[in-house]
Amino acid sequence: MQAVNQSLIQRQVQHLSQRQIQALGFLSMDSMDLREEIFKAVNENPALEIVSDPLKSKKSAENYSKKSSISADAYQAALESKEDNRETLQHHLMSQVNMIKLSPDEKNLCERLIYNLDKYGFYGSRVSPESLLDRSRPLQNKKMLDYCIDLIQNMDPIGVCCKNAEESLFVQAKILGKASDLSLFLLDGNLEFLNPPNAESVLKKLENFKRDYHNKAFAKEILLDRIELSLEEVEKSIHYITSLNPFPAGQYDHDSSQIDFEKPDVILTVERVDGLLHQDDFSTGKIFCDNHTYFQVKYASGFLPEVRLVEGINIDKNLLADAKAFLGNLEYRKSTMVLQGCQIVHEQKEFFEKGPGHLKALTRRKVAAALGINESTVSRMSAKKNSKYIQTDWGLFPASYFYLSGVESKGNSDSDEKISADVIKAKIIEILEKFKAENPNKMISDSKLCQLLNDQGIKIARRTVTKYRQQAGIKNSYER
Asked: Is the pLDDT of residue 220 over 50?
């Protein structure tokens, strides 16, 4: 007969309350799901009330517009009863893509770019083209992206697949090939000179700009120096620019049926602001950039209604406590997302200064450790399936875009401190360009590339070098 032994084991178990579970749930919700939760809470708890609703305000404005005249209703009814036979922009562009001999990766990328365009034919209000690259397709890289964008911009109608109307006008001018140097100068980020489009006023602004520019120390020659400014030349440029179409997709309908990112859930905005900031201040969402600018991180409420406690009402204390807890959880979501955004900007400062191609390796664990929160909390805010986006000066990017794996450098045991794939690709290009300049008749193998990278302290396998070389759009040594 076996003896039964008894022992006392002390164990610490943490149980999450319903309020904590709700707070964590809010982090992973998108704006539309959270919107439903807010309205549900307001309907169930009389201590809460909606102050304003972005969607309701928009709908009210549309209704007001329709009711502004009796004839508007009749006109609207006539429009709805008439069949719309206009071709969609997406169908029109894809029919042209299908007529071109493209690789499967190029065709896939073109399709994603086309269905990422808004009703004006631009991507400025959508996700950034760089984030459309499919990392599961090694051949989809920046070089292919530039090729596909250029291909679509040259299709009919010319000038779509641009960031905005200003870029579209510049692209149209380059494609048509009839623009003067002055027209190109004005279209290349200087359209403010045309406000108002009066020739004498524009000429004066150009002359003042040219004089002020050359008053600066070490001012280099600019395009404007090679242009003979005259009233006649300015008038020709104004006439040419006004002949271009700022909304080339205007004659087409918009098809959003195949878009899985039609309405990005923007959770944060990051903007570079002029001003002096001595050090990072996460409490106000400000991150140091340089001695003249800083980055401002803001929470984007999007479609979320504004909710608050009802004032001057006698109500059950339990309902009041629940209402306060609900508002506290909404505030927790806001503050936690801003903190994550601040840490991302702090870690990926070079990206926010210089744009895509300058990301460093970053893990959710490192961000969580820096903020003193659980790694799962960071994951809830940045999981790919949540499709949460951050608006930057370089475009709209998924929050997951800023977390990038990498390889360890020699002598570094901290697994968080790694060299990102972006940096390695740049180093591969740098090595190849330097080698080609010094040895124009020779080629360098992936094994040699691997050795040179290892010599620079980057611990990387030959097969990984091959993968990164292919992703950078560089052929192997036999094909180069």
From this structure: yes
